[in-house]
Amino acid sequence: MLKGVILILVMTLLMLVGACSGDTRVDGKDHVDGEEAPRLFTVVRITEKDDGKTVTVWEGDEVVVELESNRTTGYMWMLPRGWSGDGVLEQEGLGEYEKDEREEGMVGTGGESVWRFKAKKSGEVRLVIDYRRPWERTRLGKSFRVDIEVREKDRERRKIDEVY
Questions:
Q1: Which of 17, 29, 64, 81 has the fewest other C-beta atoms within 10 Å?
Q2: Does the keyword section mention Kinase (predicted)?
């Protein structure tokens, strides 16, 4: 009888521990924040806290840049016209604006501007995104800058990718 109670308690404890584990997924893929990206992950999330830093990723990784924004002010995050990524980083689609969840009837709330990139080949590229009004020619807002170093996949990384 006592063994049965202990077994039930242990099983319940194991289920609770498993249920409390956090999920670190973006669009169903594993991810971590910018500069902490280990070799196992394929999606690297970059935010304002990475401003001015260098972030290292691997060939084939997806890079997601998320910057807080409030388009109701007229300001928006904008990539410079003609930005190419030098073949190192390739933009996937256009940048998107995702509104924050808000109560019905609330106006003037912000959201996030989101860009997705693919690390295509090894090299370094500087990504500068300006927060400004589209009709103004000068940079009156702020700028976000991050240097992205793309490393070539080595044998160890290829083996890890094959396992997952």
A1: 81
A2: no
3-state secondary structure 97-118: EEECCCCCCCCCCCEEEEEEEE
Query: In a 10 Å sphere around its CB, with 0-12 CB exposed, 13-18 middle and 19+ buried, how is residue 150 labelled?
Result: buried
Q: Tell me the CATH number at 151.
A: 2.60.40.2020
Name the strand (E) or helix (H) holding 89. strand 89-91
Is-above-0.90 flag for pTM? no
Residue 80: other Cβ atoms inside 10 A: 10
- CA 158 – CA 39 distance, rounded (Å): 10
Whole-angstrom Cα distance, residue 80 to residue 56? 22
Domain with 80 in it: 24-99+109-163
pLDDT digits (tens, 9 = 90+) for 39-75: 555 899 999 999 999 999 999 999 999 999 888 888 8
